[in-house]
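Quarterly update, task 2.4: adenosine-5'-triphosphate-bound model.
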Amino acid sequence: MDIFRVLSRGASLNKSKDYKADFTAPDKVKSATELKKSNDLNVQVEKEIDFFHSKQHKIVKEVESKVNGDESDDDVKDDETRKQEPVKITTKEEALELRKLNGSKVTGHDVPLPIGSFEDLISRFRLSKILLQNLIANNFNEPTAIQSEAIPCALFNRDLIACAPTGSGKTLAFLIPLVQNILASNIRSKKRKGGENKGSEEKRIKGLIISPTKELAQQINNQLNKITENLGIKTGYLNKSLASKFRSGVSKASKFDIIVTTPLRLIDLVKNSALDLSYVEFLVFDEADSLFQSDFLEQTDAILSALTSPKLCKSIFSATITSHVEELAHGIMKDPVRVIIGLKEAANSNIEQKIIYCGDEHGKLVAIRDMIQNGGFKPPVIIFLQSIDRAKALFNELLYDGLNVDVIHAERSQKQREDAIARFRSGELWCLITTDVLSRGIDFKGINLIINYDVPNSSQAYVHRIGRTGRAGRTGRAVTFYTKEDTDMIKNVVNVMRASGQIEGMPIWMRDETALSKLSKDRKRKLKREQLERGKISTVPKAFKKRKFRKA
Ligand SMILES: Nc1ncnc2c1ncn2[C@@H]1O[C@H](COP(=O)(O)OP(=O)(O)OP(=O)(O)O)[C@@H](O)[C@H]1O
């Protein structure tokens, strides 16, 4: 195995991806063109459009030559990456070497070897060539650490507990094997029923992906659509409109191979017999620790009881999987493989973390305005607060200051949420204020800064919130404000920072582990349940607030 090849992957991810570097979706090109209007991003956008065109050209060449086995094109030959042979893992020693490099800990009975490259999947698992082309066309050239381990496990139909840092590619780690398994399963059922000549077959939902939020479910479905192009696999995000089509019979569930959904919508349909889940063979809980928390547990249970296929394989994914969640998972799984990348529940090491003592609520406003004035507030920025009311109040303050900002929380309509996300993704909007509704899974490209205006109520919440930056090999910054009311809550943050070796700038007493003892389990539970009562944010006169808000 070529160790340098493996090591260089992180570096190439870093090099090739800058702000908004999503080369796959044509709508991104349009929005980037629109962005040219904005002076500050002009140069950046022009560079990206050029890069997009050259990249597109290269991708087309690469895909053509892969399909035709044609190596004659000079452009393709000259590309350094094409000169290297795909890494293949064929022995236990090579697997050990790769796991050491990737910081992967894999346990379980009869664990499969990891993959060294996506091409490795062709020889070992007869991966669909179209699926491989789709990966390459979307710039997914090499598997990340979690993909190396999770993909072969799922292709061997193993139950799986997978924990890997935020932004490390967990979504593709479950989507690639899911798609391949469903392709194989469809071929098998076609053969059983005598091939294509027997007319159109009734399909069944075979894959189910559960996500705790609508935004994340939609994002997963978008990713799924990209990699299933030309594969004849039908996927659906169970939004309000699709759910009502199922209910009224306008759209038949039997058209779909894979459904991505939040728990409640699914349960509602199952209870009303509008959806049959008894043929589902592959189940994924994304952000599983959130779905296994007490607020969701009943719904998760209801879903599990509707999944009756004896072939059912289950996997759970998150950046934070507590031992309690692992215990619950073991209770519903058969002989699972456990994959942990890096330190369990640690922050992504590409994120520079900082805490700022602000004294009181007013001090936080002063601190944020100070950051804006002194250049520490480099967009795109996401600001997290503990409640809807506080998010609204800070939105009014920053809008009053003339900042290019919008807010997302559970009280805004789906359309308002989607619009704000689209504007933020395109770069039109520079700052997004939100609650924990956007803290998990959402993949915005090139976020520069996360501000925890309010301290998150658990170390897990902190890891997910700051994980919106520092994704796919990029770097990012996270700043957490705290006041004298946060003496307990800030310990969650400090402990994560200390585990990441980020004690620079931290008060001396916080660096000392004995002085800052860990919170007791009971105290942690209480902090998670109850929201800290905080002083008011708002300083903007009411009459002005209304005028401005309506305008926005
Ligand atoms: N093999 C790959 N090569 C290049 N980019 C990749 C690869 N796999 C994933 N990515 C990109 O990395 C980014 C992060 O991936 P993803 O959203 O799956 O992270 P995650 O681990 O699920 O994070 P979170 O814990 O926050 O949900 C995405 O933009 C995705 O397109």
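Highlight for this quarter: The two ends are 56 Å apart (CA to CA).
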